[in-house]
Specification:
The protein has 357 residues and is an alpha+beta fold. The chain folds into three domains: 126 residues, no CATH class; 53 residues, Orthogonal Bundle (Helix Hairpins), CATH 1.10.287; 146 residues, 2-Layer Sandwich (Heat Shock Protein 90), CATH 3.30.565. Helices cover 61% and strands 13% of the residues. It contains eleven helices and seven strands. The strands form two sheets. A five-stranded mixed β-sheet has the order 2-4-5-7-6, covered by helices on one side. A two-stranded antiparallel ribbon has the order 1-3. Strand 6 and strand 7 form a beta hairpin. It is elongated and about 120 Å long. About 1% of the residues have low confidence.
């Protein structure tokens, strides 16, 4: 039994003790009041007091009446005190039946009970988020996975033909490999995005070198921009950044990958990092095909793809992840682009450098 539970049960035992003591004292006080009141009424009407043999019945009657009244009052008080626990038990049963939207108001609850109610509400909220995550994940996949799966099935059937040439067989297998990689990337990005969409608190923050992180992200994708003979230039201020290193890395990975994808062979990508008071500004520019106004308006929408050709390797999730991560970090992301003139993504993040976790 953990510490919180021990405190809760110890508090509950003391509450029951004081409740029983209150009942005894209340009954005794009511008996004394009733006995005094009965004697006063008899004397008020100049009635003779009963003989000694009957006088004993007065405290007995008073005690019986006080016990009844004390019991009624105690039941009413106990219902008022235990009502928050009753609501908590009903809500727990609702969660057990699959209703994660239920919440319990901590009003009229003692401090320990109120703490358990808040913990219950937090648990129900997290369970609800997990249920939404699961539902969104299934619904999204059922729609977005249809095309590549049909493609894989079609080319797999073609491979069963004995009349295929070696070149045809290679083309079909390359297509299947490309579609399976697309499915793998889509599943990873969709799950990652859904997770971040239902995350509100960023954990694992620490001080680290942001400029070195950007250099590392560029190096990790070196084979892709070298394969297209793309020149990558950088001007990075030495910057210590306070944040979640793993989370922020998704921003640079997706933006750099996006720039490489839409920059033609022989083009250029420029990465700039500027440290400002209380914030950092990173811009990633390319000399690619650019975007029209409508594309810029929808570029951060989930599963939106400006390039609808079958050869497109994107899945429409990378920039949605970028936007959500930037929001979690309390920053902003803007895009500047014109057709044929390339694009620039500017990310601004608040920096509390020096703060310890």
């Amino acid at each position: 039994m953990n510490k919180k539970k021990k405190v809760f049960y110890r508090s509950l035992r003391w509450t029951m003790f004081w409740y029983v003591l209150f009942f005894i004292v209340l009954s005794a006080l009511l008996a004394l009041v009733l006995y005094t009141l009965m004697k006063y009424i008899l004397s008020l009407f100049n009635a003779a007091l009963p003989p000694d043999s009957y006088t004993l019945w007065i405290p007995i009657i008073a005690l019986a009446i006080s016990a009844i009244l004390g019991t009624v009052l105690s039941v009413l008080i106990s219902r008022w005190y235990l009502e928050p626990l009753s609501r908590l038990m009903k809500a727990t049963q609702a969660v057990a039946n699959g209703d994660f939207s239920v919440r319990v108001e901590p009003k009229k609850a003692r401090r320990e009970v109120a703490e358990y109610i808040r913990s219950f509400n937090k648990m129900a909220e997290e369970l609800g988020s997990l249920e939404i995550l699961r539902t969104d994940f299934v619904n999204t996949f059922s729609h977005e996975f249809k095309t590549p799966i049909i493609s894989i099935r079609g080319f797999s059937r073609l491979l069963q033909s004995d009349s295929l040439t070696a070149e045809q067989r290679k083309t079909y297998t390359d297509t299947i490999i490309r579609e399976t990689e697309r499915l793998a990337d889509m599943s990873t990005h969709a799950l990652l995005l859904t997770q971040y969409e239902h995350t509100e608190i960023v954990t694992g923050k620490k001080n680290y070198s942001l400029d070195e992180q950007l250099r590392s992200c560029i190096r990790l994708q070196e084979r892709f921009w070298l394969a297209k003979d793309i020149t990558v230039e950088g001007e990075l201020d030495n910057t210590v950044f306070y944040g979640s290193e793993e989370l922020v890395e998704h921003i640079w990975d997706n933006l750099i990958s996006n720039a490489i994808r839409f920059t033609p062979p022989g083009g250029q990508i420029t990465v700039l990092l500027r440290q400002e008071p209380g914030e950092v500004c990173v811009s990633i520019s390319d000399s690619g095909i650019g975007m029209d106004e409508n594309t810029v308006h929808h570029i951060f929408d989930k599963f939106y793809k400006a390039d609808l050709s079958p050869q497109s390797s994107g899945n429409g999730l990378g920039l949605a992840i970028v936007q959500r991560v930037v929001q979690l970090c309390g920053g902003s992301v803007r895009v500047f682009s014109r057709l044929g003139e390339g694009s620039t993504f500017a990310v601004t993040l608040p920096n509390e450098v020096g703060k310890q976790t």
